[in-house]
Amino acid sequence: MASSKTVGEYLIDRLYDLGVRHVFGVPGDFALGFFDLLAHSKLQVVNTCDEQGAGFAADAYSRLKGIGVLCVTYCVGGLKVMNPVAQAYAEKSPVIVISGAPGIKERVKHPVLHHKIKDFDTQFRMFEQITVASTVLRDGESACREIDRVLESVLRFKLPVYIEFPRDVVGLPIKLEDHRKTLPEEADQETFQEAISEAVKMINAAQKLVIIAGIELHRFGLQDSLLRFVEKTGIPAATTIDGKSVISDRNPLSIGVYEGAMGFENVRLYVESSDCVILLGAILSDVNLGGFTAHLDQRKIINATNEKVSIRHHGYDNVTLRQFLEGLIGGDIKKRELTSIIPRRTPPTAFVPVQGRQLTTHRLFHRINSGLEDNTVVIAEPGDALFGGADLYIHGATEFISPAYYLSLGFAVPAVLGVQLARPDLRPLVLVGDGAFQMTGVELSTIARFGLNPIIIVLNNGGYSTERPMMDGSFNDVLNWNYGKITEVLQTGKSFDVETEDQLDQALLAARDYKSGFSILNVHINPHDSSPALHRLTESLGKRVK
Ligand SMILES: Cc1ncc(C[n+]2csc(CCOP(=O)(O)OP(=O)(O)O)c2C)c(N)n1
Ligand SMILES: [Mg+2]
Fold first, then answer.
1. Sequence-distant (≥ 6) Cβ neighbours of residue 21 within 8 angstroms
2. What is the pLDDT of residues 262-295, one digit of tens each?
């Protein structure tokens, strides 16, 4: 059916229907037409200082809102977001990349147009490698089918997709067809029932059970299902580091992060001595397994991901995580008592600052932990910010955000945009190393422009401390910036210089009360100091070597 709607308008409508309200990006001539359409639509454009910042912001938005959208121009913008989009792929965060491009008619005689790399489809082919579905919208006839096909993949797989929008296609009338019937592929009833009955039998026969809750529970919005499962069965739940906060740490059955020797010893012992370990949506990466110091026995494992359920050595294809978890909740599983052997999480003790005492990483995290509030969302950058952050006692579900698997530096500051625009009820507390801040800290400018009010803690330890124990050299040093002075450049915000425990305490109290803009704390730390989690790992690895 021909319609009065244009291709650009149709795409915007579909994004809106999927719950999207903001689009992150930087315009350029090939994308200006679509940007103009966005600016006059129900969606808000959040134009960042740099495309990489937009990419991280869209990833963070997606983690809280279910889908994030990024809009850039051809190649010069597109290639800058390859790293954040690759991260979104690796960490199963559904980001829709929309890139402007030369018009279809402009391509006919292969002219040498600005921004083009090799061929007109070079950027498209690069994005094919880091997305689950991709398309170039070529005309009004096929655009509806192509947009619907790509968006179905976002919903089914929770992975990034790529839509290239030649500039002369944006305003073409679209031929509307209904393609939205394809339901997600799920396993047939027989496979599903067999998986559930084998799992229930194994669970009921076990003495000591534990759940390891992973990243996919965040991505598929299964936090409440996990909670129902835990409460119905009484089985305690650890999380992986990238699954952290999928269950509130206040829940008596939440036992904290399991990450081999990186984590707390009592959690490791509990998990590794269990006779049934239920992995839900967990990626078994080196980071999640504490640099492969974790030991999980395949014969004791039920491993459910969104693609497949494996029970011991049996596999059940296409049983989705949601299907499996709902099946277990409906299954006949006996309830376990809460016993004293479960490693309970205890709320942090009060932090009493010692006047004039030089701050250590350990004490910094103690103060942060005791000051977390119900509306705090922690954004932790890779580096010691993430290692230390892993121990934090998080109040609500999905209130700890970090690229804990792909580990790209530069995420945390731009992520504020995505997090606070997706969830204005939350206040971000950003933990970022000085090295990482120097990569994307410029997005504080966008944060200020959109009136957001995060508290940014820069762990200023003179450079790349995480790398120093591996191999040190001047390549790990960065210039010592006076980070607080950024408030003068941006002409807004509050800054604090922190060297001692009492200065930290005062600064965090003042930042908490200053709500009309961002606060930045320049926290001076000895370059060779590190978080308790990193100490645990090196100590444990040291013991193994001896
Ligand atoms: C984009 C990117 N570049 C390089 C690295 C490698 N890397 C891992 S940790 C690290 C040091 C980070 O320094 P900083 O942000 O100051 O944190 P610290 O290690 O001092 O806690 C580097 C460079 C990375 N993970 N990501
Ligand atoms: Mg550093």
1. 42, 43, 44, 65, 421
2. 888 999 999 999 999 999 999 989 888 888 888 8
192 lines ligand 1 (CB under 6 A): no
Decide: 86 in ligand 1 pocket, CB within 6 A: no
pLDDT in tens, 292-339: 888 899 899 999 999 899 999 899 998 999 999 999 999 999 999 988
Is residue 472 within 6 Å of ligand 1 at its C-beta? no
d(CA 521, CA 513): 14
Q: Under a CB-based contact definition with an 8 Å cutoff, are residues 95 and 62 in contact?
A: yes
pTM above threshold 0.85: yes
Element (H, E) at 302: strand 301-304
Atom of ligand 1 nearest to the CA of 436: 15
Which residues partner with 193 through β-bridges?
A: none
Q: Is the Cβ atom of 383 under 6 angstroms away from ligand 1?
A: yes
Beta bridge partners of 46: 24
- 109-114 mean pLDDT: 89
434 pocket-lining for ligand 1 (C-beta < 6 Å)? yes
| Amino acid (one-letter) located at 290 | G
Is residue 523 in contact with ligand 1, taking CB distance under 6 Å? no
Contact 224, 230 (CB under 8 A): no
Task: Please identify, by atom number, the ligand 1 atom nearest to the C-alpha of residue 387.
Answer: 21
Say how many Å lie between the CA of residue 543 and the centre of ligand 1: 26
Strands 173-175 and 2-6: antiparallel
Contacting residues for 474 by C-beta, under 8 A, at least 6 apart: none
Which residue minimizes the CA distance to atom 4 of ligand 1? 409
> From the CA of 409, which ligand is nearest?
1
Closest residue by Cα to atom 5, ligand 1, is 409
- What does the CA dihedral 389, 395, 397, 402 come to, rounded to 10 degrees? -20
The one-character DSSP state at 381 is: -
pLDDT computed for residue 546 by the predictor: 45
Q: Does 289 contact ligand 1 (Cβ within 6 A)? A: no
Structure confidence at residue 545 (pLDDT)? 44
Q: Are 146 and 82 in contact (CB under 8 A)?
A: no
Asked if 454 contacts 424 with a C-beta cutoff of 8 angstroms, the reply is: no
- pLDDT at site 180: 64
Tokens of 247: 């269950």
Give the residue with greater pLDDT, 471 vs 182. Answer: 471
The answer to whether residue 481 scores a pLDDT higher than 80 is: yes
Q: How many CB atoms lie within 10 A of CB 105?
A: 10
Amino acid sitting at position 390? A
Rounded-to-integer distance, Cα 506 and Cα 509, Å? 5
Residue 107 DSSP class? G
Ligand that lies nearest to the alpha carbon of residue 389, given by its number in the listed order: 1
